[in-house]
Amino acid sequence: MKIAVLGSGESGVGAALLAKAKGYDVFVSDMGPIKPEYRVQLKQAGISFEEGMHTESLILDATEIVKSPGIPEKAPLIKKAYEKQIPVLSEIEFAARYSKAKFVCITGTNGKTTTTLLTYHLLKSAGLNVGLAGNIGTSLAKQVIEDAFDYYVLELSSFQLDNMYRFRAHIAVLLNITPDHLDRYEYKMESYAASKLRITQNQLEGDYFIYNQEDPLIFQFFKPAVFAGQTIPFSLEKNAHSKAWFEGKNIVLGFAAQSPTVSTENSPLIGKHNQYNSLAAISVAKLLGISVNQIETALATFKNAEHRLQKIGEKNGVLWINDSKATNVEAVWFALEGMKQPIVWIAGGVDKGNDYETLKPFAQEKIKALICLGKENEKLKTSFGGIVPEIKETQSVEEAVEMAQNLAQTGDVVLLSPACASFDLFNNYEHRGHRFMEAVREIALKN
Predict the structure, then answer these.
(1) N or C: at which end does the chain have fewer Cβ atoms within 10 angstroms?
(2) What is the pLDDT of residue 347?
(3) Looking at residue 443, what DSSP letter applies?
(4) What percentage of the chain carries pLDDT values higher than 70?
């Protein structure tokens, strides 16, 4: 058996190491450079690899191909593999063959990282033997070499799901479906939705699908009548079909015996989108037997990933928040919706065809100033001119923080929530978020 691995990132190298451990003849190929730490891992394992090229004769000689999620299905090499009837798998599909654990799988256009981290935190805090993998942390394949966990919580993108066929989630979670990455799906919303709903494939009677009942595209494309597992639809308010919902700051778990309530009073998460995320994560925890007291205790100690409505600090009554991960309008909508204070909003970057119409009611109601941080700001200025009282622009994150400091008053929040990609001024959204936090600490929060 020969395995060709396309891509030498965390998932690719993990798949290669697992394949080697299971006795396969393994070859890793990457069109780009291989990071030094991964090159060392491959050499130590005695795995053949190439970088800066794809040698088709070696790749198309494989029994199976494990490909990076970043490589599209329409790539010429992938098309040739299909023509030769060589199976093309994701790392998750390959790794799951060698695990006896149960999988909790989380997807959605927005919120999946927060929900994955919160779910993992709730399970681990309660003493479950649980691993974290997928789009986050150490690759599943690398962890499966030892397969020491009873459960894995996996964050899954649509790109990963596209090359998963026999994989079965014990608990699947779908948070939302909004337009994103449509270039990979021939600009067809139904194709993107079908990709997300692959998370439910192969589920059986003893498995669960937790989903956002209030999401219109999930409602449109998911067909409960033909689903083999058990459904747990959640919503912010109780309705005829919801099995988990909010009452004030309490979550009611209507699917559990005696419909227990879980207080979210001490949760650090803010905004409506995080209410949905909390509904999903807490439902998973309850399904796996975790008590209300354990859930409430763990909620209070949760720390979210950076750049997701991350509180940096407060000075002179002004709260500073880093939401650099908000690279689309939908994510910004949730951020603005969650704020109760007047907002000095920092936005901008590489526009992805944004339509800002849904943000305009928030602009009229809450946004006192807009600071455009990007090389091309005309669309933002045109969209919010005449609505937001003051609009400024800059290409310097330090100057943006100085401007915000001068504009903000006691009781205000300064929110970096860009709605755009970061590649005009920064390497990625993490780089943008770190630079913003550094500037806030050096300029705004310094004594």
Answers:
(1) C
(2) 98
(3) I
(4) 98
Q: Is 14 annotated as a binding residue?
A: no
Tell me whether residue 109 is annotated as binding: yes
Contact 351, 326 (CB under 8 A): no
Q: In a 3-state reduction of DSSP, which class is residue 107?
A: strand
The answer to whether 68 touches 6, Cβ cutoff 8 Å, is yes
Q: How far apart are CA 67 and CA 89, in angstroms?
A: 6
State the pTM of this model.
Answer: 0.86
Q: Is 131 annotated as a binding residue?
A: no
| CB neighbourhood size of 288 (10 A) | 20
Each residue's pLDDT tens digit, 306-339: 898 999 999 999 999 999 999 989 889 989 998 9
Of 178 and 392, which is predicted with more confidence? 392
Kindly list the distances between the CA atom of residue 142 and the CA atoms of 46, 49, 65, 347, in Å, as whole numbers in the listed order.
Answer: 16, 17, 17, 38
Which of the 8 DSSP states describes residue 199? G
Say if residue 113 carries a ligand binding annotation: yes
Q: Is 138 annotated as a binding residue?
A: no
Taking Cα atoms as reference points, which of 339, 345, 326, 337 lies closest to residue 422? 326
Q: Which residue has the tokens 């109601």?
A: 365
Domains of the chain: 2-89 (3.40.50.720), 93-300 (3.40.1190.10), 310-444 (3.90.190.20)
